[in-house]
Amino acid sequence: MNKKFKSCIILSSIFFIGCVAFEKKETITMEGERNRLTSEFYEKAVYLEHQKKPAQAKKNYQLAMVADPSNKAARQGVTQMNKQLQTIADKYYRKSIALHKKGKYSEATRYLLIALRLWPEHFKARQELMATRNLNIQKYVLHTIKKGETLSKISKIYYGNFTQSGIIAQANHIKDAGFIRVGMQLKIPELKSYPFVSPKATNKLEQLTDKSYPPEKKTEPLKMYKNMGKDFFRYQEFENAVIEFKKVLNADPTDKESITYISKAYFNLGSNAYAKKKYLTAIENFQQALAFNKKCASCKRKIIQSRNLYKEYHYKAGMKFFDEQNLNSAILEWDLVHQMDTDYKKVAQLLHKAKTIQKNIETIKQSE
Length: 368
Fold this sequence. Notes:
The protein is mainly alpha-helical. The chain has 15 helices and three strands.
């Protein structure tokens, strides 16, 4: 009787210790997974930094900080990448100014946008871009290009200096000053900040002022944000395009053009993530695109495809880990599938099976 009683106590103790050990193991597993993710993101960030890809390196340092907020090395990495990105953005800004002086206006705008993509807080680049969108035009006059004239020379005729050729280019949608031709008619805008020189300063003014146009209204901030968003979209800088269109929609949620653009920008972001097999990111962006355009059939189709590929990828990864007797990793993979779709294949049964085996193994280990 005493033997049976002792046996019961021993078995009960083993069961109890096994349960405690299992809970402890789960805690260790979560801690280990956090350390694994931190290490994985940090190592990838260091690699990308060596590959001279500071923007991508910064993202991975930030992910390492999300996994472990106390990681000082990751925090230092973010700081260092910010400095590099600011330096590179400055180079693009200076290149933009140089191109603008050469009359390469379209290229100059592209370099400004690159500078802002690298460092959105770049004040000078943003100010320059906004300045080109916000001309305070008083009136226009019509000018017919003559042989030997350039935009710089025309700028000298009207503004008294050679440096305002960009204003003329913008008013006439000229991307490259080298493509103007004799006989082309240009609208020359008179600005509040750059008024025309007086007829006394040049006798050509009266001859060239063939026709006047009504003044344009000053561009409103929302219009500037929209124009910047369009520029970002045109150069496939979709993340920055979304930022600018959000500014418009925060003030005017009914702006149809911004709604159309932001939906397309999100769809393109989703497509890019899908191509890189980042299915969760793809799903998120396709859902955002669908939120702005309820009739987007492609969005719905891509969401379904992304979900299926995501589930299948992690389901198979779990099977591989299970076959290798790596139960912790198998459970983590199947849990990702289960969170998205509890009825996907036999994932619920497999999870239960893997956890039961893991628990039994720990119990046996503790009883030895």
